[in-house]
């Protein structure tokens, strides 16, 4: 079995991986669509903006707190591995969803702060970090166990 094709797994495991990838893509597309709408439609038309610099600081604090916490939660869930070092599909799904939710919350908060402040800078850094980590956790078949006891 290679990283992108779960050919050695059961039909249920293939469907679970496909569902995870669809959810991952839907979550990513939601974040990217909001960013696109913000950049193309909202920010260029804003007038009389009263920036709140404290919100940018809160966005950075949120990034420093939520993403590591979501990562630790994911690692704790991933401790339930099989002897082959792989995870049951449900375990992989649960840990991934928790991490994705943390990244998504940081992304949306950063984009909302940018909308309130009328400028992408500096919160685009927060958004880029969260989107990069979200993208790096694409569901891979080599992480999922193909044993019958999963």
Describe it.
Helix content is 67%, strand content 0%. The protein is elongated, with a radius of gyration of 18 Å. The protein contains four helices and no strands. The protein starts with 10 loop residues before the first helix and ends in a 14-residue tail after the last helix. By secondary structure, the protein is mostly helical. The protein has helices at residues 11-42, 53-78, 89-117, 123-136.
Portion of residues in helices? 55-70%
- Beta-strand segment tally: 0
Order of helices and strands: HHHH
Task: Provide the low-confidence segments as ranges.
Answer: 1-6
Q: Structural class of the secondary structure composition?
A: mainly alpha
Number of helices: 4
Strand content: under 5%
Mean pLDDT: 90
Oligomer: single chain
Radius of gyration: 18 Å
How many domains is the backbone divided into? 1
Shape: elongated
Please summarize the sheet with the most strands. Answer: none
Spatial separation of the terminal alpha carbons = 17 Å
Brief rundown of the structure:
This protein is mostly helical. About 65% of the residues lie in helices and about 0% in strands.
What's the helix and strand layout?
Blueprint: H1 11-42, H2 53-78, H3 89-117, H4 123-136
Helix pairs in contact: 1-3, 2-3, 2-4, 3-4
Pick out its properties.
150 residues; mainly alpha
